[in-house]
Write a structure and sequence with these properties.
Elements: H1 3-54, H2 70-126, H3 133-165, E1 173-176, H4 177-187, H5 189-194, E2 198-203, E3 208-211, H6 213-229, E4 236-244, E5 247-254, H7 261-264, H8 276-281, H9 288-298, E6 304-308, E7 312-319
Helix pairs in contact: 1-2, 2-3, 3-9, 4-6, 6-9
Bound molecules: adenosine-5'-diphosphate and magnesium ion.
Magnesium ion binds near residues 222, 225, 226 and 284.
């Protein structure tokens, strides 16, 4: 009899341990399944998606089911962010590449036109036209005119590429803007007279501005030239400088042909011209305003334009002013 209780004790102990073992096994199986669902499967998704992103599927993102292990979820989020950044960088690189090849196509086209003209006129002259003064002189003049055009174009191209590459260094100092504009208006007189346009300049006693005098003189010459070139017979150009709260405001207003509304936002783009033929006829390259914008940006000066087709254009910007001149 004494054996019975001990036997049943053993049985109980055995049963208990079996139950415990089965329980432990079950628990570990469950644990494995949980791990499988929250870590291993998601990690596989992370791995395979990352592989396809790195093989070029830049718009693919890791999408995980709910209730995955937080560490895995965080890893996936970090990889997705990285992929977003890479996709953005690739997009930007492609855009720059597009802009660059468009620019090169435009440059080639712009250079080709005057080169072909020079070539054509010279060929005709060599073929015999040189012996007929009535043809020779105008042809030589045309060849010369196109050679000049090439020169202007190349200068503008060099300027714009120097500015855009950051190679061009600005040298800022205080100078007298009234003196500069007076001089530039004076320099424009021959061109203005040829176009039968009157240029006037009025100013108050605000004179000292802070900027690169050479570059700003280029800006003002460009704007003044446009105001004369795109004017009408008997038209006017009024330049005004005035002390303003944030510096000296410069305004160039003309009574010219104006710029139709739909072109207004694009005139600062390289090679953009409202009327290509008119621009060419007056020696334009379509680069002037792009250069102007770059230079003014370096001066933290925003340029504003308002225009009404057939009535005229007003362009203005404000330069920082200073104490000493
Ligand atoms: N004052 C103005 N009046 C009318 N149109 C203008 C004026 N200034 C610029 N434009 C227009 O903007 C275009 C771009 O100007 P710009 O970059 O200076 O090139 P362009 O070499 O043709 O002068 C011009 O071709 C012209 O169509
Ligand atoms: Mg111009």
């Amino acid at each position: 009899m004494a054996d019975v209780p001990s036997l049943s004790l053993i049985t109980v102990v055995l049963l208990c341990s079996v139950t415990f073992m089965v329980g432990a096994l079950l628990a570990s199986a469950l644990q494995r399944r949980r791990l499988q669902r929250s870590v291993r499967l998601p990690l596989e998704i992370v791995e395979s998606t990352t592989a396809s992103i790195s093989q070029g599927a830049v718009s693919t993102r890791i999408v995980l089911p709910d209730n995955v292990d937080p560490a895995v979820a965080q890893t996936a989020t970090a990889i997705n962010r990285l992929a977003d950044r890479a996709a953005h960088d690739i997009e930007e690189m492609r855009r720059l590449e597009r802009v660059r090849s468009e620019f090169i196509a435009n440059v080639s086209h712009e250079l080709r036109t005057p080169i072909f003209s020079v070539q054509g006129y010279l060929e005709t002259l060599l073929d015999g036209a040189k012996d007929d003064p009535a043809v020779a002189i105008p042809f030589l003049e045309k060849a010369y005119h196109n050679a000049m055009r090439l020169n202007v174009l190349l200068n503008d191209l060099i300027d714009i590429s120097r500015i855009e590459s950051g190679e061009l260094k600005f040298s800022f100092r205080y100078f007298d803007i009234v003196d500069l504009i007076t001089e530039l208006v004076h320099n424009s007189e021959i061109r203005a007279r040829q176009a039968n346009v009157t240029v006037t300049y009025s100013h108050d006693d605000a004179r000292s501005v802070y900027g690169d005098k050479e570059r700003l003189s280029q800006v003002l010459t460009n704007l003044l030239d446009n105001a004369i070139k795109y004017n009408v017979d008997g038209g006017r150009v009024n330049v005004v400088t005035q002390g303003a709260e944030s510096g000296v405001r410069i305004e160039i207003a003309d009574t010219g042909i104006g710029i139709p509304e739909q072109h207004l936002s694009r005139i600062f783009e390289r090679f953009y011209r409202v009327d290509k033929d008119r621009s060419r006829a007056v020696g334009g390259t379509g680069l002037g305003l792009a250069i102007v914008k770059h230079i003014l940006e370096a001066h933290d000066a925003h340029i504003d334009v308002s225009s009404s087709a057939g009535h005229g254009t007003q362009i203005g910007f404000t330069l920082r002013s200073g104490e000493a001149v």
